[in-house]
Amino acid sequence: MKKTFSLLLLAASLALPAAAQQDPKAGKILDQMSAKYQALKAFQANFTQTLENPSAKVKQNINGDILVSGQKFRLKLSGQEVINNGTTTWTYLKNENEVNISDSDPAMQEMSPSQIYTMYKKGYKYSYVQQVKEAGEDIDVIELSPENRQNDVFKVRLKVRKKDASVKSWQMFKKNGNQYTFLIKKFQPNPPVDANTFAFDKAKYKGVKVVDLR
After folding, report:
1. For the whole model, what pTM was predicted?
2. Can you tell me whether residue 25 is helix, strand or coil?
3. Where would you tag: which of 35, 65, 122, 153 has the fewest CB atoms within 10 A of its CB?
4. Which segments of 117-209 does DSSP mark as H helices, in order?
5. CATH 2.50.20.10, domain 6-208, yes or no
6. Residue extents of the structural domains in the chain
7. Maximum pairwise Cα distance, the chain
8. Nearest 5°: CA angle at 97, between 94 and 98?
9. Which of 144, 78, 154, 88 lies closest to 116, judged by CA?
């Protein structure tokens, strides 16, 4: 479970006390970005997660996929799959052919990938950095700083496309020197979902070992 979900780690790093005195320019961009994603019934994204630690000369890339609808999500990353229906979480480990079942912690719901586009509203300061051009696109760069100085994360850098307020990437900086970058490669708005999308179907995983931690 060591590698489980740096995406969730990013979200967890931002669940902090309420913020005060924000940069209005950054706030306007974040509000537009948030409204864009919250208006969708569901979305699916393919992304690349890069872990870098310059001092340790570490650089690792992992491809992932996430499907989100409201409070529910289905995440695939590095031989693992996490399914959350809002009340129950299934974590499937492919190499072990094992699924761990746990109750969804209500406090963790606001840290889940389903809330990643609204987390800036809770507990960290944000400021506008600059506008840059990447691959011919105008990008707004915003930095977020947790108000809780005990947090392992000291900065998050968010890049938002100017043309449509969509997120291009975000980068998380940790005090131990690790840097996590999440680059969205493909985005699909309103993919088809049904009642079975966010539930673990044991019949599809032959011989799977079930570990119920509830």
Report:
1. 0.77
2. helix
3. 35
4. none
5. yes
6. 6-208
7. 54
8. 105
9. 144
